Amino acid sequence: MDFDSRYVMTIDGADAMGEGTIDVINPATGQPFAAAPRATAADVDAAVAAARRALPAWRGLAMAERKAKLVEMGNAIAANAAELAALFTREQGRPLAMALGEIKQSAYWLKATAKLDLPVDVTEDGDTRRVEVHHEPLGVVAAIVPWNFPVLLAIWKIAPALLAGNTMVVKPSPFTPLCTLKLGELFRDILPAGVLNVVSGGDELGPLITAHPGIDKISFTGSTATGKKVMESAARDLKRITLELGGNDAAIVLPDCDVDEIATQIFFGAFYNSAQVCIATKRLYIHEDIYDALRNRLHEMAQRSVVGDGAAEGTTFGPIQNEPQYRRVLALMEEARANGLTLLQGSDVPQRGYFVPLTLVDNPPEDSGVVQEEAFGPILPLLRFSDLDEVIDRANASEYGLAGAVWSKDIDAAIAVARRVETGTVWINQNMQSTPFTPFAGFKQSGFGVENGLPGLLEFTQPKAIYIPKAGAQVPSMVAPAGNR
User: Fold this and answer.
1) pTM value?
2) Active-site entry in 185, 244, 374, 451
3) Is 244 a catalytic residue?
4) Phi then psi for 81, rounded to 5 degrees?
5) What's the CA gap between 431 and 162, in Å, rounded?
6) Tens of pLDDT, residues 249-297
7) Which position among 102, 179, 257, 278 bears the catalytic label?
């Protein structure tokens, strides 16, 4: 595939240029390096119409045929992994080796999702009848993808939606549209025209999609504030929705931990992708017996880390992806300084681009901004505790409930804590793990619906109950009412 500087949308299996362009900024320099098409309302209409036309034939394919297409798509990503990773680093900022990791994981996710099956649930099989529940595709799915994991989180939506028999319109973030546009081109030789359409544009594009009457389902990953707007828009015509939203994820480190054994995992669990991860550790509660030792070790690691251009050899952490987020992170850091909090910072960062030093905040008050807000940047509050019940209450005192972690040598004790933590995912002695076969969902304001695993696949379907009489049997004429009218 040609990875030149020509970027086009894919609508009905062909190039689409939109009207005008949006600049794509390299966050390591703060300067534009490419331009992506700016879709119009007419382009959205065309993409939805193409998806609608392609729907009957696509959902009519045997499940095995759709599975084979997903495997082909995974192989196509793998065959172009190096080129996609280089482009990824330029638009997203992550160091090249880690960018390549996301590309390869996306290829794996497609092929792994192809191993899932839609069940036929039998709820009754008696003398007179059999009742089967089938799971039918919803129709046209809109996938709205964020900038922090622009390829993998697109695949999280594309793979199950297509497997279930839906067709799609995919909108990448205006900050990171390029790899997704290239995926649209890459998949044209695999998927029938109209099955997967990719449109790019500015902030005006999202509302055009969420309000479009031809969309049956929206799968959105992003902030809680924007997710609420998506939900409000979808409610007008009762679109189905899946929302994977923010998190202020807490990790609890119990006193029996060996600092030497856990420090590296905790460090990267907090700062991977410069902490621009919804499930990264964002509040680290450390028992007072090992607080000083772990704090000092994490600070040493921050000082040894290399923050810089992801394309440069030896870089371990890249920039904040975009200027608005960069400004928000700086404002949170300045607020902490103004309030007299102790900031323990890592190595120097480049003066050009959207770089922020890896920063630990030494035992701030629970009501401080760096504790209460999701920074989505490399600022990690370290919080001292002595009482287990109290720290669980502190960890749960959040409007979010996406993920959490518990660290202890005593696995049974860690499980007991994990069961009390109010999050959709809890890791023990690990972090930021997910699989295509395990449901991922958030408590409270961290989400609505499920991604991944069979429950995530079923989110892209509508249950249909079929009552089948047995030959020669007399079916009862009276039925239980569905509800009072």
Assistant:
1) 0.95
2) 244
3) yes
4) -60, -45
5) 29
6) 999 999 999 999 999 999 999 999 999 999 999 999 999 999 999 999 9
7) 278
